[in-house]
Amino acid sequence: MEMFHLRYFVAVAQELSFTRAAARLHLATSPLSQRIKDLERELDCLLFVRAHHRITLTPAGESLLPLAIDVITRFDTLPEAVHGDAATGRHARIGIAPDVPPQLRDDILASLSRAHPDITPQLIPASTEPLRRKVIAGEIDIALVHGPVVDRGVRVRRLSTQAAGAAIARGIGFDHHRSVRLSELANLSYASIDPEAAPEVYRRTDQALTRAGVHGRIVIDGDNLAGLAHIVAAGQAFTFVGMESGATHKAFAGEPVLILPVVDVNLRLSSEVIWQAGRGVNGDIVEDLIAVAASVRPSGGVVPFPSGSAEAT
């Protein structure tokens, strides 16, 4: 048994898909499947139940998963242990999603500096979904992302939330409104950046929109906030933004756009800290990072969601 066998097993167990696991590992599906079969042969037990377009863990697989994650984590921290924290200090890899508010970022970094001056943080920017994958793969220690994040491979702690509003162009019938019902926007399309940036967030957003009778969708390529602002300001669509702040909120500065509270759906925007399941214990640096992040509250409790998305509660 080699270390890569365990890494491959963990990827498949967390994705519950050979195709997604292969993409995450930058492998073809066929050799990945063969390596898992080799591991099952060596352990003399099945780790997965393979059905049509669906796989699940067997009891043996369920038992192996936390042990495999622990072994991988310990293996990956060997260089740090050999060089010694006292001599070189500790280095923290912290993922950060685009719409995490600057105040939250600054408060966490300042608190980390005060509580653990031996830790040098390195910020790694990306959208929520790529960061989730990096956390699971052990490439970063924690990530500040837009929630909710639902994944058996990570642990999640919500940091804060704020109310969301609808960004709507002036001059299309809402100029004298002080609030809006989501159902009043049914004749407009809903615009957002790529939903794959935060799949669970956009799935819930889509459900809330559909229930309110909003069926039109416009997806902007990548994370082009300027493009999102153009579409909304032109009256072709609406989107969701934090009522207080956030990168999406700032994208509409100077645009002929209203940001109105939504009164028929309770829309909340949140940020969460996520870390790999199995980490955050036994003196792991993640334990210190989680404690720091959980102790910080941004001014006004403002922590917005990803661009153009919201969770209905």
Automatic annotation (TrEMBL):
PANTHER family: HCA OPERON TRANSCRIPTIONAL ACTIVATOR HCAR (PTHR30346:SF0), TRANSCRIPTIONAL DUAL REGULATOR HCAR-RELATED (PTHR30346). Transmembrane segments: none annotated. Residues 1-58 form the HTH lysR-type domain. It comes from Nocardia xishanensis. This is LysR family transcriptional regulator. Keywords: Activator, DNA-binding, Transcription, Transcription regulation. CDD domains: PBP2_LTTR_substrate. It holds the Pfam family HTH_1. Belongs to the LysR transcriptional regulatory family.
